[in-house]
Amino acid sequence: MRILQLVHQYIPENIGGTELYTYWLSESLVQQGYNVAVFYRRSADGTGITRRFQNGQEIWCAWSGLITPFRRFWATFYNPALTKAFLQVLDEFQPDLVHIQHLMGHPAHYISYLKEKGIPYVITLHDFWWICANAQLLTNYSQELCAGPHLYLNCAECALSRLGRARYKPVLPIAATPLAMRNYLLRKVIAGAEALIAPSKFVRQWYLGQGIPEDKIYTVAHGVKVDGLVSSQKREPHSPVRFAYLGGFSWQKGVHIAVEAFTGLKGSAELWLIGDDTAFPDYTAYLRSLATSNVHFLGHQDRAGVWKTLAQVDILVVPSLWYETFAFVISEAFAAGVPVIASSLGPLKDRIKDEVDGLLVPPGDKQAMRAAMQRFLDDPELILRLRSGITPPDTIEKHSRMIEEIYKAIV
User: Fold this and answer.
1) Tens-digit pLDDT profile for residues 178-193
2) Which of the chain's termini has less CB crowding within 10 Å, N or C?
3) How far is CA 303 from CA 70, 183, 198, 341, in A?
4) What residues contact 150, with CB distance under 8 A and at least 6 apart?
5) Regarding beta strands 97-100 and 121-124, do their DSSP bridges make them parallel or antiparallel, or are they unpaired?
6) Domains recognised in the chain with CATH numbers
7) What CA–CA distance (Å, rounded) separates 37 from 25?
8) Which of 387, 385, 252, 259 is nearest to 313 (CA)?
9) Per-residue pLDDT tens for 330-373?
């Protein structure tokens, strides 16, 4: 079977959860004997397309100018250069099935060509972008969780706030129109899919609440690639106790909650902050202003560095303020035998068994986060008790076999 993975961006230009998942899944499918190609777009002047081969994957990269928020949004409606590139990939690779990992920045009418050629497709719902143009269900104007579109006026206010035009409220009905048109097109894409794959029960239930047919959505938890992992199951807790945050530095991730909670602890501890601290320099500067000398900014780390870090820390902190759809970092922590303190929010409260393999705290509550952290200083044996309650996550190999069954049911 020939599988084409369609994604908004890819490694090495972008390294995030969706990109890594697509790479791992493609690599695993190749090992299972499938022919796999990946098509993605990148930001670059001019237009063009290239093909390269990596670990058995046939990787196609197209570009049609520098990507701005407006161009990314508008591409859903129209981008002839990307459409031409996509048709070239279809003609040359001849896929039996297309797996859409993310369509952001791609034209929605790709789907008409798939239908014309009789090529089925499935979609993995990595976030809420199919309904929320902001993808996060977190408003730009009030930084509050959002339930979804309300006549698209709230979507328009969110978009204008992101552009720094929040005060232009009289134009909200006008701004709402293209957002409603966008969702009309994307709902047609969803309707045409043979299957939708949700990485968590929460994501499945949320999309069902948006009117997606129940028999179309499968819940398949992501798998994690664990090769090179040095097991830390039997090590003793460190002194001082080591907390870690691993992920992006943005306010939605709640990193400031972790830092503020940590700085009020009584006892000896360290907080390691690992992730790209260049994307939002103002926010990083704010975090540094909050930090004490035992808060360490360690920057971005490659995969080997991630596993090395997880083998050296005691507790992972996931203080998200938005709805994560899965949180790969929890799987990585559990694979390394590291308990987790997480916000009791969305899929996180399903993934963490409170008082068994981690602790749950109300999102945004720095006092509750501090109290949870303090428990590990007062009782280091808590680390060992929670560690013993961890269930190892599914590997990407096991996950890819479950995805394979969905493919086989379609083709």
Assistant:
1) 999 999 999 999 999 9
2) C
3) 33, 36, 25, 22
4) none
5) parallel
6) 2-143+178-223+396-410 (3.40.50.2000), 241-388 (3.40.50.2000)
7) 11
8) 387
9) 999 999 999 999 999 999 999 999 999 999 999 999 999 999 99
